[in-house]
Amino acid sequence: MMKRILKGTFLTFSVFFTGCFEYHESLFFLPDYSGYADIRYTVPIYKDEDRSMLAYLPVDQNKIIEKYDRYLSSDQYRIENYKFDRIKTDLSEDQGEVAYRVFFSDPRSLEYLLIGKNKIYRNGGRLYLHRKFSATASPREEASRISNNLYTKVLQSFNNKKLTFQIVFPWYYDLVTNLGNFSRPGLHNFTLPLENTFNTEKPIVWKIELKANPVPEAGF
Predict the structure, then answer these.
(1) Is the pLDDT of residue 172 over 50?
(2) Can you tell me whether residue 174 is helix, strand or coil?
(3) In the 8-state DSSP scheme, what is residue 196?
(4) What is the pTM of this model?
(5) How far apart are CA 154 and CA 13, in angstroms?
């Protein structure tokens, strides 16, 4: 019994650390569905070294490349404009700000270049993206007071934290999706507050279908 309690506490602490981050992604598609993604995020880092506390969001460029190289070859993607800054929060916590641009020729590479659990495929002139973001259920009724207190702290750490996404595509293409909104033709936005991933057992599922259309004739 004690081992199970300690294990549950450890997992809750792990979730706590993952709560202190923000992520922004702008995804640009060219007419042939190649393109690039501008990725920017802020994550907690260790006090004495420039190393992220979140393995899936590293701050060192070599670590980012190492993460992608597990699934992709060097000719499937290219990173440019990498930038890293160490910052202090108002509570004197150490955080790292990372930004870079990653190019891709085959949109299926995005399964490994973007956060979340992604499934991407093409069918003729249509591109389908199925993205899934994990969620965390609330503690069970029999959970200990320690687990409940930790859960409350995690939830508080998520306040005002969010994942933001943009999809930029040819304005004459059609995009159908179940989440987000359109700012103008060719620009779609989606914001996911981190607190929305709590108190639910179901993951957040974002479905996107992009359909290629011919270039409109001048004057139409």
Answers:
(1) yes
(2) strand
(3) G
(4) 0.82
(5) 8
Of the candidates 26, 37, 204, 22, the residue with the CA atom closest to the CA atom of residue 109: 37
Residue 54: pLDDT band with limits 50, 70, 90 = confident
**CA 28 – CA 34 distance, rounded (Å):** 8
Q: How far is it, in rounded angstroms, from Cα 43 to Cα 164?
A: 15
Bridge partners of 9? none
205 and 196 in contact (C-beta within 8 Å)? no
Cα–Cα distance between 186 and 174 in angstroms, integer? Answer: 8
Which amino acid, one-letter code, is at 194?
A: L
User: Bridge partners of 39?
Assistant: 25, 100
Among left, alpha and beta (phi > 0; psi -120 to 50; other), residue 122 is beta
- Please report the pLDDT score of residue 13 as a whole number: 36
Instruction: Report the DSSP pairing between strands 22-29 and 162-168.
Output: parallel
Residue 12's pLDDT is 37
Q: Of the candidates 113, 117, 111, 127, which has an alpha carbon nearest to the alpha carbon of residue 39? A: 113
Give the three-state DSSP class for 20.
coil
What residues contact residue 183 under an 8 Å CB cut-off, 6+ apart?
Answer: 189
Phi (first) and psi of residue 130, to 5 degrees: -120, 110
